[in-house]
Each structure stands twice: as structure tokens, then as C-alpha cells.
## 1
Amino acid sequence: MIGSSSIFTGVPVGSPSLLPEGKYVPQMAVTNFSARALRVQVQYAQTTGDTPTAQKIRDFTLPARSTKQLTLDNLHGGAGLQNSLVIDFDGAPGDLMAKLVSTSESAFFEVEILAKDEKSGNGGSHPWSLEQGNDATLLLFNSAPESQAFTVLISGGDVFWEKTYELASMQTQHISIRNLILERVQDDKGKTLPEDSQSGLVEWFSGANGKGRLLESNKESAMARNFSCTGYYCLCNPQFLPGATSFLISSTVGFGSDEADICQSPVPGPCCNKGSVAQHNTSSASHSWSSNNTSIIQISGSSTGSSVNTYGAGGGNTNVEGDMTYSGCTVSIAPPGTVRVPYSTRLVSTAWSRPMSCQAGYAGWDRGIYEKVVDQFGQDFTFDGVSMTESLSIGRNDLGLTCDNCSGQENTYGGGTFDDRFSYCTNLCPASTGETDVTQVLFYNGIPLHNTNLVVEKCSSITWNSQ
């Protein structure tokens, strides 16, 4: 039923400590500018400590083009201005306007609070000052049905202080900048505001139209001024920080991470492509990762962190998409990934090729070579310390050779090179003109290469894939 809302953040109720002594009572005027009656509901949200409570205090019908005065004298409030009001009505934005002042019997007779439309931006900023004994207090209110994070940025001297506050639904947060300085409160990175800070800029923003205002007050001079400059804060400048984007099939790697800034946009809207940067590398965005082709790359483990691990399911190229969402805006990156398959080996060079030293009545040949493994794209694998194992099988066998040890193992070194040696002795050499053909299957870190090697052994030579 209720379609629009106006919000008053940090309403003086009772005897707040920042204002001159007296009992403050909210007085509200609501006007229906539309041509039909509106149903109006007023909620009062009071926070004690960090615990909010909310109650409906008024529910009435306001005739078309009429005004109603409300005195909210049955409310209780604490000393910290942690009280907020939400006015809901079943019309369009602009149909109903509300004005609120808190009056008291003190010398400072009334404090006016400006209303904010529920969807009129998700943050704000204003200069703050403690000069001449003033106090600067930031008041935040979360009207959303779920908890949400508010980021607060305060400049003081040459320090940029940055802290995230988690507010429950209907919670009002009271942040005294003077207390932050005096109590040496650390931000999320361990920084504190300089003890001699007297002025600067404060910014605040949230992910779901949270509201805030800055109160500049001086109890002695009976001064209280409210500043509620609305801003639109959105994700901007997304980028990908690569990890291992090219990796081996059947392996799991840290593919990379994404990050984005929060910008203050000059125009309304959930997403922005321009504007001044308010926060670098925000931690407030939510993340989601997916693969465009799961037969090549699969997400391994969590898909909702700022970084992502991937598993090589099959050889090829595909993109891994990373989405970052904040305040209704989603920005995406789609970095390419490559899963490499050990495909074949290439001959780097021959170390030696010579007659084998055999016992009397036997002769043979001995050849040592250097090889490298290449992937399906013909690119070398250049990793050192990778185990290379083999399996040999004999086909044509004119020389009557046997396979006494049909397997072997070497490790890669020097940029992916590994040693390979073939040798034999037989009593049919040197007279025989025949040959023995050996099929070699190689395994790269346990993964069988796609192509096999053919080793042809003759009495006066050994060739490897006709080389």
C-alpha cells in the first residue's frame, strides 16, 4: 500500500546532550498537494546503544490539498540524537511534503530537521568544524528492511580516515568527530585523526539509500545547524588484478581478483562512468564470478569473494566474468583465461649420438637429447622442477631388444628443459640392417601428453620422430 517515504534522521526528542537544556518535542506539518486523499503512516525508530526499536505512532488519511499538524509529545528519546522518523504514504514522490521542528522551553526554542526522500541519493558530504568550541556530529539512519554498511570518510589535516559502520534495520548511528579525535579511534586501516584537527570534510554513503546529516552545534551559544547535502555514490573504475590466468589442465590456481572505486556522481542513477573518486578499492561491493565455458574453466571454491580460484577442466581459451554490485549498480569485467594442455615435445638439441660401449660380441647405439614440452598452441612450458615420466612399448623388433626398464623419470630445469636418453646393446649388431621401433608416452606432472614419440633404433643410429 505504502509507495513513498520521507525520512528525518537524528530527531531531537527529550533532552539530547548536544543541545541546550530542555525537553524537545517533535512538531510536524504534513501537506497533501495531490488531487486525491493519501493514507499516511508515521514510524518512530529509537536506538538505545546499538539496538533499534521501531513503532507506528500515527496512521491517518489526509484529504486532497490539505495540511495536518502533529505534536508528537508521547515519544521518549535518549541523549545521543539516535531517533529518526519515517513518513510513508501511498502516493507518488512529491505528493506529500512534511516539515519537522523539535521545540523546547529552552533559550534555543526549536531545531528544524530537513526531510529526505527515501530514494534521493545514498550518501552525502559537508565540511565539518570544531572551531570556537563547536561540535560536529554525523547522524546516520538505515531505513532499509535489512542491515547495511555505511562507509564514513573523514579528512583531518593530512590524514584520510575511513571506517565502515554496520547498521541494523531502523538503526540510527551517532558519530561524534570530536570524540573520534580525543579517544584516538582507529579506522579500518589503523589510522587515527590528528589530535590538533579542527576542520575537514566528512563523506558518508551506503548501498541502499541510507540517510545521513551533519549536525554542527554549540551548546553554550545555543547553536545547532543541520547539513544534509545529498550525493549519489556509485561503483566506478572496475579493474582486474591478474593472478595465474594461463594454467595447466587439471590444476587449480588463484586466477585473480577484481576491484573498483566508489565515485560521487554528478547525476542521479545507480551506475556512473564519471565523477570524483570518494573511495579507492572499496570493500563494500558484493562479488560474483562465473565461467563462460565450464568445459574449459570452472570456478573452484567460493564464487562470491573479491578473488577467485579456477580449475582447468579442458584445454582452450574462455573468459571468466566478474560482477561487482553496489547500490543497485553492477559493473563487470571479463578477463580471458587459458587452460594449457601438455601436447607434445620438441627437440631442443642432441647432447651426443655415438656407438654404445657394449660387452664383447655385442654392439649398439647411444643417444642423449634435450627436450621441452609444448602445449596445444605450440608454446613451451617453461616451469622448472616438473616431473617427467615415461612409458615405453616395443613394436617392430628386428634387433631382438627387450624392455628391461620400461619407465623413467627426470625433472625439468633451465626453463623447462629435460634430459632424455636412448641406448641399447644387441648381439645382432653391427651386422643387422633391421630396426626396432619404440613408442614413448610421456607424462608431464602425471598428465599424459597428447602426442607420442617414435624412437627408431638401428645398429648405427637412433632417430627420435625422424630427427
Note: The chain has a mean pLDDT of 91.
## 2
Amino acid sequence: MWCPSYIWKTYAGPKGSLNPVADATPKGLQMARQRMVLDSQRELMQKNWQKNMKYRMEHEGDTIDLKPVLKLFNPCGAATWLLTELDEDGDTAFGLCDLGQQCPELGYVSLEELASVTLPFGLYIERDIHFRAHKTLSEYAAKARELGRIEIC
């Protein structure tokens, strides 16, 4: 398989694998998590979490309907995640999750687990660098339930 040297240097991980988390080493997982979520996105998602926790306490469990901050996807399949919040632990994210089985749902996902996913061809779960939310999470969720998949347009 031909691979430009700059890609090999960027993605070469433990034991020469193309995927830096192929062996699920702590360093490999940390590298993948840093690549998946930008620091600015992480900060905004943690602020959203704190804002929503405070709002829940003051309004008997109601939540603020936020716009997604981050879109992750499986480049080899149909899985997509639209995430709005990140727990104080820095790993547990909340958002709309679609594993490509025609039943998207709101829920929690571990960023560490997503970072540890090993895909064919040395790929991994990726961040959509072009994603800009135009609707709130509940609007995306309503449309996703109707279609059986997340639609961004």
C-alpha cells in the first residue's frame, strides 16, 4: 500500500501500525483523543455541561437546547455523533448518536472508547472539520428520528 511519508509520520503508531491506537496504549489513546476534539471545542462543550447542570438544578430537570459543537464520524461506515456537552471527567460526552442502524438516539458516549476504535485501512473515528451547526440538538434529533439517520443539511 502506497502512503506518502508525511502521512506515515503523522499516523505511524506503536509497532509501526498506521493507526496510533491500534495497540490501545495510553499514549496512542491520548493522541487520538487530541486529534478528535480541538481544545476550543473541548472547552465549549465543558462550559455547555456546566451551564446545563446549573440550569437543571434551577429548573427541576429541564435542559437547555444547545447547538452541537462537534461532529464525529466513521469514515468506513455510517456512524455519526453530534455532541453538545462534555462532562467534567473530560471523557463522557452527550449528544445525538447514530450507529447506522436506523435508530439515532440522544445519549452519552465515551471519547476514549471512540478513540480506541480500530477501523480498516488504518483509519479511526474522525472529526468533521467542516461541520457548523445550524440547528439545535433537538431539531437534529427530530429530523434523525423521522429519517432513521442524522442529516446535517
Note: The chain has five helices and five strands.
## 3
Amino acid sequence: MGICNCRSLTYSPELRARWPSFLPREWHRAYPNVFDDADLKLALGQQPSHHFREWFVAVHLRSEHGACSLVEKYRPRRRPSKVHSRKCARLREWFNPAQVRTLREVCDGVGVQPPDLLARDADGLFFFVEVKRSNESLSKKQRRSHALIRKRLGVPVRTIRVRQSRTGAG
């Protein structure tokens, strides 16, 4: 299947209307290798209008490209997160200690979170994804961190723009 090269995705207003009432639970059940209980709690938590786009892209990557994603909160820390322990463990399975340290150094050095998703496609190739609205730009710090990730880790960083269709199709 190879790394997803999509640049934009469109979702229907009807799909968006199902967030956060129904979709987080549906996707959590349908994609257990992508979303765990901590993801579900985050999606239903204090900012329920957030996270839809990241989850939408992760579902697309899984269903259309066979890619498994870590969605947000996978940032490597000196002491692994207890809440997001699955993501910390998966990151350490996918990346060796030097790569984990490099990702932490890049994020800490630039002062940003890592890209929204870290994905591994069906062929075992890794890529990061920054999810943006169609009219949203990368910040200067994001551009810098993405360049450093590409240079120091040799891992591609994709930006996928997500927008809502004007009609029910999409």
C-alpha cells in the first residue's frame, strides 16, 4: 500500500454532526489498534469539539491505507505517561531509544508538540501527519520541527488538510 500521499480529505456535515455524541465510541470499538480508552476519554473530555479531524484522518489512514496511528499525546517524555502508556510503549516498539530521544529533543528544543499523528503503514514505513483545516497554516515552530524531524530522523512529515463538504456527499 505504501505511505499515504493524500494532501486533503473531506467529510460530510452529517458525519461531523455525530461528533462527539456517537463517533468517538464507534471508532474506538471499530479501530482498537488506533484508539484506546485514554483516547476515548480525551475525545469525550473537557474539549469535546476538538480531536475530530485527527481521529477522522487516523480512521482514513487505517481503513484506506492499512496504517496504524498514534493519535496525539504520544510525545516522548523522560518518564512515560501512565495515562497514555499504550502510546508510550508503541512509540518505543516502533523507534529505538536514540530515535525516541531525538524526537523529544526536537520537540523540546523548538517548543512544540510532535505532529498530530505518528503512523506506520502496512509496509512498516513510518510517517508523521500534521492535521490542519483547509485554511489553516503551519506555525513557524511547526515548520521548523517538521524540518528537523525529516533531517534528524529521516521520517516524512505530511500535512493533511481536512474540510467539511458543503453538501451531504463526502
Note: The mean pLDDT is 89.
